[in-house]
Amino acid sequence: MDGGMELKGCVCRIKNCAGxxxxxxxxxxxxxxxxxxxLVLRDIRLKATFLYIDLSRVISRSENDERRKxxxxxxxxxxxxxxxxxxxxxxxxxxxxxxxxxDTAEALREVVAALAPxx
Length: 119
What we know:
Elements: H1 3-22, H2 25-28, H3 34-60, H4 65-91, H5 94-114
Pfam families: PsbQ (PF05757)
Keywords: Chloroplast, Membrane, Plastid, Thylakoid, Transit peptide
InterPro entries: PsbQ-like_dom_sf, PSII_PsbQ, PSII_PsbQ_pln
């Protein structure tokens, strides 16, 4: 497979998954039943896994060291926030979850912005 096409696919999946995560806010702030909490946690973990794989590919194929370092820092911040969000969902604390979700959403927006082609 063409490396450029693979990277475009990774970036496309990252943006798609980011859109899905950013649209989950309403699901996270409502009163959920036990099964819904588990589904939300699984969904967050699944999205984090796909994002990890695709971000790793984008970072490893970046030809510019500065861009690679910047993307790595942003990705690390995002995955830290995702872990915190997962912990908040596990604790079922809506107030903590709102705070963690906001941090995660901001970190994700930074990652997506950094993936934009350089001007």
